[in-house]
Design brief:
By secondary structure, the protein is of the alpha/beta class. It contains eight helices and twelve strands. Strand 1, helix 1 and strand 2 form a beta-alpha-beta unit. The longest helix has 16 residues. Bound molecules: NADP nicotinamide-adenine-dinucleotide phosphate (NAP). The site of NADP nicotinamide-adenine-dinucleotide phosphate has 28 residues, from helix 1 and helix 4.
Length: about 260
Amino acid sequence: MISVCVAGATGWAGSELARAIAHADDLALVAAVSRTHAGQVLGDVLHEPRLTAVVYASAREALATPCDVLVEYTKPASANANILVALEQGAHVVVGTSGLTDDDIAEIDAAARKRQRGVLACGNFALTVVLLQKFAEAAARLIPQWEIIDYAHDDKVDAPSGTARELASRLGKIRAPQPTIPLDRTVGPREARGATLAGSQVHSIRLPGYVISAEVIFGMPDQKLSIRHDSGSSARPYVDGALLAIRKVSTLVGLHRGLDSVLDL
Ligand SMILES: NC(=O)c1ccc[n+]([C@@H]2O[C@H](COP(=O)([O-])OP(=O)(O)OC[C@H]3O[C@@H](n4cnc5c(N)ncnc54)[C@H](OP(=O)(O)O)[C@@H]3O)[C@@H](O)[C@H]2O)c1
């Protein structure tokens, strides 16, 4: 039995995961974090009687109940501190929250290695996104020019999305794209060419009407290839990957990014 604490268990993504944990035979949700529901039983908040864990206002308080794995599903501003507290307490960590900076990642990796614990950070737990990443990596080996577009709802505060960041980072490890006109020779506002992340140009669109999508466009003379992923409006696509991450994270040491770290693809 793997004991789990979910930080952000009352949120859009965390509540769907908490319900799935309640129905998994090998997982036990032992504590939860949410400021507004602190002191309540999670099952009362989520209308799921199997969830008997108490909700705490902070990860530090919740982690007084020992757990094997903390799932971080709060917000970019609180994620780093929650992850470091969990490692300090000896838990492995699964990170669903987007927006970790490179400095956060370096700090978390060092803390995890010091404690010999695993951290698995996935900007997107959907299996179809893992495939998007793999297909894009294959394309980048053959096609030298691409740009990334990240579409999301208007109230998403972080940009680019975790999915777009992770995609840029992965493609940057294959090669740096070679734009025909270097960015510093852009005529007009430089911002029109997007942000440069790990060498890739990334364009984030935030508008009502969108849910979450990510697209990589590869261009070659007189031909182009678009690889695009669209999520629906429920948090269901993220559940199976997050459960897999919870089950596998203890096999890792240090910070690893992407579900394919624990998938045989
Ligand atoms: N990796 C993936 O596949 C995936 C999928 C979906 C979402 N995400 C990411 O996951 C994160 C959460 O998204 P969401 O849509 O679920 O957000 P949400 O609905 O706003 O839920 C956030 C949860 O975190 C809690 N929380 C927020 N700030 C906190 C703090 N300072 N201390 C303690 N608890 C805090 C909230 O409860 P209180 O406000 O009551 O504290 C709530 O339970 C975002 O970064 C999102 O981009 C990732």
